[in-house]
Amino acid sequence: MAADAISSGAGQEPRAQRWSIVLCRRLRAWYLGSDAARGYLLLMPTLAVLFALLVVPVATLFLTSFCTQVYFKIDCSFTLANYATIFEPSGEVGYFLGIVPYPEMETPIYAVLLVRSIWMAFLVTLSVMLLAYPMAYFLAFRVTRNKIRWLILITVPFWTSYLLRAFAWKVILGYGGVINSGLISAGIIQEPLSFLLYNPTAVIITLTHAWLAFAVLPIYVSLEKIDRSLLEAASDLGDSRIERFLRITLPLSMPGVVAASLLVFIPTVGEYVTPTLVGGSSGKMLGSVIQSLFGQANNQPLGSAVSLVMMLVVTLLVCAFLKVTGSKLKAREVQDA
Amino acid sequence: MRRRSIGWLELYGLLFIALLYGPMLLLPLFSFNDSLYIAFPFKGFTVKWYEAMVQDSALLAALRNSLSVAIPVSIVSTAFGLLTAKALTRFRLPGRRAIVGLIMVPLVIPFIILGIALLTTLRKTFDVPLSLWTVAAGHILICLPFSVMVLISRLEGFDRSLEEASLDLGESAWSTFWRITFPIVLPGVVSSLLMCFTASFDEFLIAFFLSGDGATLPVFIWSQLRFPQKLPNVLALGSCILVLSFLLIAIAEKLRRGGIPTEKHSGF
User: Fold this and answer.
1) Tell me, what CATH number does A228's domain have?
2) If contacts are CB pairs under 8 Å, which of residues 165-194 in chain A contact chain B?
3) B69-259 has which CATH code?
């Protein structure tokens, strides 16, 4: 009996081994034959990072937005109260670029700040594009020697500390700052100008300067791709320089402009550092509110809801923008840019 | 058509560069000014703010913190970025576009949202105490897109037939890697390391949310901005940081854009 059991057990073991060898070989053959399997294996670390540090946190934010803050604890029974708060009228007057649009009306503070943030981000994007486009055009069509050196010169400031660049503007625009002290010691003014700092314009100037370096490149790339023979053809067929620019160069460079606009607009809506440093109370943006909801005000669920509404509205605006510009901006173009 | 020698565009180009660099140059300029106030006229030349800077122990601790975050972050991001870039350029992957999109997402989400989302998750969900580790985690997330972007363009520009030729001529896979692949990819790797280092070293907002007691250098600077008498020290420190970042990124860009001189990859 015992010997029988041993022999049958011994007979099964090689078979199981053979099976596992076959299975291993099949797996190996499938792995080597399949690009997808090999590719995804290489992608594992990155996907794990993205899952743990991006997907899970955003999902957590989403879930938290339906909770309620009870002192230092968070009560997670489902509620939509946070979302209601965002659009609820409050007693505060809404400033809109320093102007009070409806003094009599009670405006919901979060919604007003959201609209103001979007409006300011729009103005920043617009001024960045207007300033960056000629530079990109210059690089693409006029610079023939040392192109790489020019590109490096323009890119580098974007990488240097953003905090320090915003701080530099505070130093420039401040009450006792560079402009005021410069004008006073030059004898042009007697009293410091107080309208320079702590307003939406200061925020827009600082942010425009911060993004300038970044926006030139996508536009430059799309200008560089334009087939020069098209331009010659247009001239040969009698277009003036301006007509040629409007009919050929500008439309063909739109993908770069669209990509650059989005790369500037989206992060700017949630800006925190610049409004805090140079914005004052009239230049406050939604980012400051989000920060305080997670800090001193300690209402994380409301903060989550505000962040999500902001992301949602921005996404909708971006989709509408892409639809209007008619360019099907693909991930590839953003990546190229 | 392009016969005009000096036009308004050339002028604009120079003006643009002046506008871009002017505000930043003020920091080094006033860091040598012998006055507590950042204002004209200049009072005199001094290096005392730099002397005060190197004796500030809180500052040196913050510098140590920043370095101990930025160095590992740049290495890990570049390693992951290299694997990712290889996967995306060498293999036909279903869902490639979605993956590239996902990797680039941190670039188009406001950092404040990344910061609070990570804060909520790490603190409330996983109950991890805030430390330099949590800062590093956040920084890896924002460095990955840069690293992947740099390395993809490097690997795409590299002619695969070089590797095949080496293998055909009898080199082993190992020596092919060291003699062909590595030298070609190296500038991209160094460039990615430098960029990730700078991005992490200069990053403020995520570190602001995720650092516990140990402030990184930008968080330290932020805390100093409230005290007017500390501003000259911040200027001195800021000037050093600007010079360092400028040098590192200039080297990184030079490496990245040099070597394979194809116009296609000269973009961002």
Assistant:
1) 1.10.3720.10
2) 165, 167-169, 171-172, 174, 176-178, 180-182, 184-185
3) 1.10.3720.10
- Sign for the pseudo-dihedral over CA of B189, B192, B193, B194: positive
Work out the average pLDDT over B125-137: 87
pLDDT, position B246: 85
pLDDT band for A58, please (50, 70, 90 cuts): very high
Q: Tens of pLDDT along B143-152?
A: 999 999 989 8
Domain identity same for A141 and A9: no
Examine residue A241 and state whether it is found in any structural domain, yes or no.
yes
Is A51 part of any domain? no
Inter-chain residue contact A307 with B117, CB threshold 8 Å:
yes
Domain for residue A288, yes or no?
A: yes
Domains: count for chain A: 2
- What pLDDT was estimated at residue A92? 54
State residue A118's pLDDT score. 93
pLDDT (0 to 100) of residue B5:
53
Are residues A25 and A151 located together in one domain of the fold? no
Which one of A44, A142, A163 makes the best mutation probe of the B interface by having the most chain B beta carbons within 10 Å? A163
Domain containing residue A198: 75-336
What is the ipTM, given to two decimal places? 0.82
In a domain, A55, yes or no: no
| pLDDT for res B81 | 93
DSSP B236-256: HHHHHHHHHHHHHHHHHHHHH
Residues A17 and A93 in one domain: no
Note the helical H segments in A65-199: 81-87, 109-137, 147-159, 162-173, 178-185
Whether A102 and A250 map to the same domain: the answer is yes
Q: Cβ–Cβ contacts within 10 Å for residue A312, how many?
A: 10
- Give the pLDDT band (50/70/90) at residue A104: very low
